[in-house]
Structure formats: C-alpha cells, structure tokens
Model the fold of this input.
Amino acid sequence: MTLRTTSGGDGKLDHYVSGEPFDPYSVESMTSEQERYYMASQWQMMWWKFCRHRLAVISGAILAVFYFSILISEFLAPYHLHSRDAQHIFAPPQSLHLFHKGEFVGPFVYGLDYRLNMENLKREYTPNPDKVQPIRFFCSGDSYKFWGLFEASAHLFCPAEGGTLYLLGTDRLGRDMLSRIVYGTRISLTVGLIGISISFLLGLFFGGVSGYFGGWWDTLTQRLIEIIRSFPELPLWMALSAALPVTWSPTLIYFGITVILGLIDWTGLARAVRGKILSLREEDFATAAQLMGASSSRIIGRHLMPSFMSHLIASATLSIPSMILGETALSFLGLGLRPPITSWGVLLNEAQNINVVALYPWLMLPVVPVIIVVLTLNFFGDGLRDAADPYR
Done:
C-alpha cells in the first residue's frame, strides 16, 4: 500500500510513502553491500566464499556426478557385472568413432577380429573397418536386479545387435572393464561415507568428553589416542582385516572393512575437537548456559559443537580420501574386499602380475577414478576449509 502526501500550496513536490511494514533484512532496505554482508548468517558467508573457490566448485560438481552414479550403476553400465564373453578375453579398448568413410554415422565402434599369436601366445585383436557397430542409447540389454529389488534390463547405452562395446577393454574372463568400474564405484565411495560416519561419531564423542570434562577423562582418552596412533596404520589395517573370518559373507566382509577403517581414523578428529572445546568452554555463552542449569551434554551438543561445525565438515571431507585409499590398498593386497564384491581395489588386485600389465595395460584403468575422486575430494575439502573462516 502506498500513501500519497500532498504539499498543499507551498510549491513543494508531491512524494510517496510506503505503507508496507519495514523489513530490515530485505535486500531492498539495505543501504549498501557492506550491510548485507554483516547481516548475513555464518552459513551464508561460507557459501559465498565457497562459490568464489572455482576449483572447489568444479570438484564438488564432479563428486556430485560420481555419487549420483552409484544410485543408478546398473542403468549406466552397458553390461551386467558378471557378464562374460569367452570370445573376447583380454580384448583391448575399442575406439569410439563418429564418421565412417567421410559420412556421419553417429557414435559407433568397429568390430574386432581375433587371432592367437603362436609365437608369444598373445591374443591379438584388430579393428575391422567393415564391421560398423552403432551404439544404441536408452536400450534394452543385459537383465539385472536393480538394487536387488526388481528385475530390469534398461541401459543408458548398449552395443549393437550381435556386436561388442568394450570402451575400456575386457579382463581375463572376458568381462567389460567399464561396467565393472561403474559397479565398483558404488562400493568404493560408500566405504568412505560409512567409514567417515563411524569416525565422525567417535571423534565427536571422545574429543567432546575429553575437552569439556578434562581430568582423568582427558588423560585416559589422550593415552588411548596415543596408543592407537603409535601403530603403523597400513600394517594395523592389514592385521585387523586378516583377522576377519573367511567364512563371512561378502556383505559382512564389506561392513567389517568399513568398521575397521572408521575405528582407526577417528583419533585426529578427536584431538581437533578437544582443542576447540578447550578454547570455547570458558567463553561467556558456555558459562551462561551452565549457570542456567543446562546439562553437560546440552552445552556440548547445542552450544559448543555448532560453534565449529564448519570446521568439522571440512575435516570430515578431507578424511574421506584416506578411507577410499585404505580400502583400495587392502583390497589390492588381497586383505580387503573379495569377489564377488567388486570395488576399485578388487579390480586393481587382478593387475598385480607385471606380465599381465605389460601385455594388457588397460587392466590398470581402475586407478584413474581413484585418482580423480581423491584429488576432487581434497580440492573440495580445501574449499570448505577456506570457507569455514569467512572473516579471513
């Protein structure tokens, strides 16, 4: 509503007065960008600063694609996880083409001709230009059980009818490497999430209790942390993983590995939380909450922890790469996840033989997503860490 006031006959101009209630937090009522900045919440300032970190934003987008892919792994993979092609064992990657003899055909691959070299007993595959095999999109292919719930056969892309589509080659059993890497993404990335959840809870609990109560709680917790950190990390992982019963199902082995990773990685976060709690427990707001009768758990959980939650989020993000590398290393050494579970580490375990790698180097391709995810997680964590201090 707008009220018009008139000047009468004194010669002054008419002016308008808004009858709407004044909102001090609306952008229109701000007199400058500086006021908008000082009136923003902590999370708003974190978001603004994070958006200015271009490398972190790009890394976040890449991570979002990776984590979204684990929801539809069966749809994205052109073949089923266990589909075998005995006629194309150790087949090399097929190149993707768009033009054939100067004419646009669309995405396609050339079929492979096979012969066995009797001198070195190596399987040799050569592309046949006469076998043009167009790629089908949104097609029906190998059947699968989506998330173990219902049968389906839809795929994002499939080979031509009667053709092959091995963009990253095949392994010793004739299984498509691209499909196995896509399926392995689900296991390798969720290991990091579950492991960091366990580590996060343990670090918050022991670090919060140690920093707030002090005394013998602090002494006992710090000695426990020192004992755990005194062991070499990788040999300790190997010893605990080897202790898992061989009779366990693949699912139990999977959860056992994630629990082991989480139980060992919480010590660094606990010490960081302890230091923050020690510096904040004497602040006025903590003392006021204590005088008002708030319990210790409420003071820690509702007043102290939120004061440095941004730091905790950044720490958790930077800890996930170590979880992924830990699972990959254990599986590569044969002490982690085991078939039929498929992860990036399990796939790399099949490339331990140097002769196989020399003849079939595409078996080392599962290391590429490991490098990409670890780098993007570190860049993303660096961006969060910088954004956690918006006043800097």
User: Anything to note?
Assistant: The longest helix spans residues 177-213. The longest strand covers residues 103-117. The radius of gyration is 29 Å.
